[in-house]
């Protein structure tokens, strides 16, 4: 993998509290990064128009809103995401929600991603939420459902990426958050991996936020991660 290939697969999370902060990060990173994630924090702070702004500037946007509601509401939400110009959109991997999302996105280039089990959760969290499946069992079930329903990919921790890739084949996306360069603190994530580990295990895209956004030199931090990605599969 060369640097340009890695650039297509690195998604920088704009996990900041204002549109101005997000714009500063994008300007700082310049052409080093071509793919950004917008989640709840920025979306609810006036960041949704950035989806269109970034798309028109030649960037791709992963809209990480983890939609889950009645089918009609999910369907209308996906239609709105299409109008914004998002390239990827997350849906909690409940079958009814995924079916509604696939219906709304049919014929479009939008990649729908089913959120399996968030990387901030572990077995104890699942048990406290009433699940009687292990993390691996719940991920496997939701991955099969996402594949059968026609989703474009899934969001999962790197620890599950190898098994998921074996189950879904080479075509579907596996987007992996919780990425931390070697030696970086895990923060509030419980199932983390380095960029090289995640790619070797089958991830197609890596989401990196704090290790880049909070770095003293975000551009240098992004370049270091891209270099790690480029060498991982070379």
From TrEMBL:
Catalytic activity: orotidine 5'-phosphate + H(+) = UMP + CO2
Xref: SUPFAM superfamilies: Ribulose-phoshate binding barrel
Function (record text): Catalyzes the decarboxylation of orotidine 5'-monophosphate (OMP) to uridine 5'-monophosphate (UMP).
EC number(s) per entry: 4.1.1.23
The organism of origin for this protein: Jiella flava
Family matches, as InterPro entries: Aldolase_TIM, OMPdecase, OMPdecase_bac, OMPdeCOase_dom, RibuloseP-bd_barrel
A single GO molecular function term of this UniProt record: orotidine-5'-phosphate decarboxylase activity
Residues annotated for substrate binding in this entry: 15, 37, 64-73, 119, 180, 189, 209-210
Pfam families: OMPdecase (PF00215)
Pathway assigned to this chain's UniProt record: Pyrimidine metabolism; UMP biosynthesis via de novo pathway; UMP from orotate: step 2/2
Assembly behavior: Homodimer.
Record has Lyase as a keyword: yes
PANTHER family referenced in this protein's UniProt entry, alphabetically: OROTIDINE 5'-PHOSPHATE DECARBOXYLASE (PTHR32119)
GO BP terms: 'de novo' pyrimidine nucleobase biosynthetic process; 'de novo' UMP biosynthetic process
Annotated signal sequence range: none
Gene3D superfamilies: Aldolase class I (3.20.20.70)
The protein, known as: Orotidine 5'-phosphate decarboxylase
Family listed: Belongs to the OMP decarboxylase family. Type 1 subfamily.
Residue ranges of every copy of the Orotidine 5'-phosphate decarboxylase domain listed in the record: 9-225
EC class of the enzyme, as a word: lyase
Gene Ontology CC, one term: cytosol
Gene: pyrF
Keywords, sorted A to Z: Decarboxylase, Lyase, Pyrimidine biosynthesis
Top-level taxon of the source organism: Bacteria
Active site (UniProt): 64, 66, 69
